[in-house]
């Protein structure tokens, strides 16, 4: 039985993943406020990308496994290549948001976590003591509110996206 997205996409065969349209009447999550214009600007500048579209709160289905993404960014390079970035947003649960980012990492070229409800020491201390090897191993970037603390690095995604018309 497949229980995680990582198990599904580890074959290096690019699976097709449909990015669904938003559901009518869907209310935004309060944590969506963490993905600010400043965070988006820093991601664009750091990676020299142009954000083409933001998909908010989408549930992707990868070989029968449902994967929820807080924000999925469709981007392009200066040379016209497509890049996908997943951003996980949480107010206080650093461990949970990092585990979500790790789980979804094979689906995107860059991955970020934005934490906004904790003080800076409450984010930095566990990152320094516990989570920095995880961030480095999975190439996951980290924001505290509007400040980039760690930049994500490129890692080619293992899926191809198809957008619903």
Tell me what the structure shows.
The chain has a single domain (5-21, 31-163), classed as 3-Layer(aba) Sandwich (Trna Endonuclease, Chain: A, domain 1). It is 28% helix and 36% strand. The protein contains four helices and eight strands, in the order αβαβββαβαβββ. It has helices at residues 5-9, 37-47, 94-104, 120-138, and strands spanning 15-19, 50-62, 65-76, 82-90, 110-115, 140-144, 147-150, 159-163. Strands 2-3-4-5-6-7 form a six-stranded mixed sheet, with helices on both faces. A two-stranded parallel sheet has the order 1-8. A hairpin with a 5-residue loop joins strand 3 (65-76) and strand 4.
Note the topology.
Layout: H1 5-9, E1 15-19, H2 37-47, E2 50-62, E3 65-76, E4 82-90, H3 94-104, E5 110-115, H4 120-138, E6 140-144, E7 147-150, E8 159-163
Parallel strand pairs: 1-8, 4-5, 5-6
Antiparallel strand pairs: 2-3, 3-4, 6-7
- Overall helicity: 25-40%
Mean pLDDT figure: 87
Counting DSSP E segments of at least 2 residues, the number of strands comes to 8
Question: Quick one: overall form?
Answer: globular
Strand-residue proportion:
35-45%
Rg (CA only): 15 Å
Number of alpha- plus pi-helical segments: 4
Low-confidence stretches: none
Task: Give the key terms.
36% strand, 165 residues, Trna Endonuclease, Chain: A, domain 1, globular, two-stranded parallel sheet, single chain, 4 helices, alpha/beta
Describe the structure concisely.
With 165 residues, the protein is α/β, with parallel strands linked by helices. It contains 4 helices and 8 strands, in the order αβαβββαβαβββ. The longest helix has 19 residues, at 120-138.
